[in-house]
Specification:
Elements (H helix, E strand, L loop, with lengths): L12 H28 L3 E6 L2 H16 L3 E6 H7 L8 E6 L6 H12 L3 E5 L5 H5 L2 E3 L8 H18 L6 H7 L3 H23 L5 E5 L4 H16 L3 E5 L17 E5 L5 H14 L3 E5 L13 H25 L15
Parallel strand pairs: 1-2, 1-3, 3-4, 4-5, 6-7, 6-8, 8-9
GO molecular function: carbohydrate derivative binding; glutamine-fructose-6-phosphate transaminase (isomerizing) activity
InterPro entries: FrlB_SIS, Fructosamine_deglycase_FrlB, SIS_dom, SIS_dom_sf
Organism: Longicatena caecimuris
Amino acid sequence: MEKEKVMLSKFNVETYLKDGDAVVAKLKEVEAVADKVHDKGYENIFLLGMGGTYDELEPIQYIMNKYSEVEVHLANAAELNVLGNKRLKKGSVVITASASGDTKEIVEAVEWIVKEGIEVVAFTKPETPLGKLATTIITAPVTTGQCEYSYLMFDVLALRLLNRRNEFPKYDAFIAQTKNIFHDLVDIREKFDAKADEIAKAYALEPYSIFVGSGALWGETVLFSMCILEEMQWVRTRAVSSPDFFHGTLELVDKDVPVFLFKGEDECRKLDNRVEAFAKKFTDKLVVIDTAEYAIDGLDPEFRMIVSPMILTALVTERLASYYETYTKHNLAYRRYYRQFEY
């Protein structure tokens, strides 16, 4: 039986898949950068982010810590600029990203980091302030800002580094099994679309919502609640990790407080289940979004954890956000303060 075609509002499938193909074609270049970094040698890795980029790098740290003994630090650029870090030295390699290439905190950090003789790999455009500073540039060949493009390129850089350290021997299998992932993510959007509309209609105008996640999904949980709902929708949220939920935030739960739980597929799922059991008892507004319910064809179970942030970003940062915009009547592109003037 032919599958019913779902029309995705505010989403151009053709452009998305074209850009996705361009990202996949770019992965050989990303792999070559990883090989260059490995061959040169390094003592430790610093993942340098700010705001949403920091959140996107969070699962990369999680993945590298899971598979590797290499020392991996996730650094907030604004903090690094004032605090420094004694472990950041000539033997380090810094990996950062900025779509605009002018994120002021990242640019400031890279300026002094490069002066210290430290290798900086930046996902950005070469003509930008960051692009002119970084020692190695990877340019994302896309016109749309879908987070999953970044996730895949970050994954390939990180996993190739680990593969060269003999810590991720199934690298080639991962690459082969994710070559059509953007087609799968369109299917996932279609499956979730009606539910996204239903959730947004019910909760977009709530005065306060709690968002809970953990493990490989923690960064995406923060990104959605902070960068999308707070910044782009002016919705009041609280992001809390599943382990921390029971040390403060649980006291704010009552039957009228929405609790969104983003359930992952790694070891921390046990912690997510504990939150779910609690929330079922004490709120009438529990929303559980479980990445395990959404298939990626031909993907080995052990790779599910790696791609779970891509699944979640397709579900919420893209689909759910688009319906929030519909019901809040607040344009996702409109800001009062962010980048509107100097502060």
